[in-house]
Amino acid sequence: MGIFLPQQIRVYPFRETMDPAFCQLYSVGRDLVTDHQYHWDGMTRADGPLFLFQYTLAGWGHILIHDKIHRVEPGDAFLVEIPSPHRYFLPETSPLWDVSFILFHPGHLAEPWLQLLRHWDSIKNIPDSSAIIRHLHSIIHAADKNRITDGYLASSYVYQFIMELFRDQDTEQAESYDWPLKVRQAADYLEAHYSSLQSLADLAEHVGLSKFYFNRLFTRHTGYSPLTYLTKVRLEQAIDRLRNTDLNVEDIALQIGYSSSSYLIRVFRQWFGCSPHEFRSRERAILY
């Protein structure tokens, strides 16, 4: 696949980010597996609670999820929670399994993280040119160069990786869901008027449906409740402003439809486990 990665595994027990509010990098690296004793059971391993993303570079292995064995080949990835009922291993018929991986604590990501796990209910094929894989491998290279020097920087790498997973989920949903006209109209309206939308009842009325039926229809086809979708759009706009402008948090809050910075800070922390100011500081630490 033309990827150069150092053959190593790094573990990061940084004390600064042991608070469960933070996303925490636990381990990252590349592992060339040739020992057929390689076998991990998600219900018995003692290093959780964690989440594992593992990507196959060469060779192949097996993972058992939902009582079904999947062959994991080059370009395939899986995302699993530890503990949870799964097993992955090198079968006797495979000579090797060359993988890159990241183990992390997700922090307080609440509902969006549960939706992401449902999205990853088996293996997925991802090109090595994708943003997910490029960012994973950039973390491995940073680890190899001893550039992950404290818990805050380590957490920022995890946040960026998780955001790429969310971005991939949204892209796939947009491509794979044949949304009904009413749902598409509602999503388009919400994305255009996120800063001024006063009530989700108004949104249901805009598309000519009852509030109850609209909520159920929208959730079934998009994977998000209307309120969660609105929150997601507003936070995407907040992140764009945090990255690309010097606006203060109060101004950003008002621009995206929140009445105060305190409300934005509370919602931002619920989704991402850090404040907008902390997010901006970490982003700039990576860039500079």
TrEMBL record:
Q: Does the keyword Transcription regulation apply?
A: yes
Entry keyword set: DNA-binding, Transcription, Transcription regulation
In the record, what terms sit under GO molecular function? DNA-binding transcription factor activity; sequence-specific DNA binding
Residues forming the HTH araC/xylS-type domain are: 184-282
Instruction: List, alphabetically, the SMART domains matched.
Output: HTH_ARAC
Q: Which residues cross the membrane?
A: none
Report the protein name in the record.
HTH araC/xylS-type domain-containing protein
The species this protein belongs to is: Paenibacillus selenitireducens
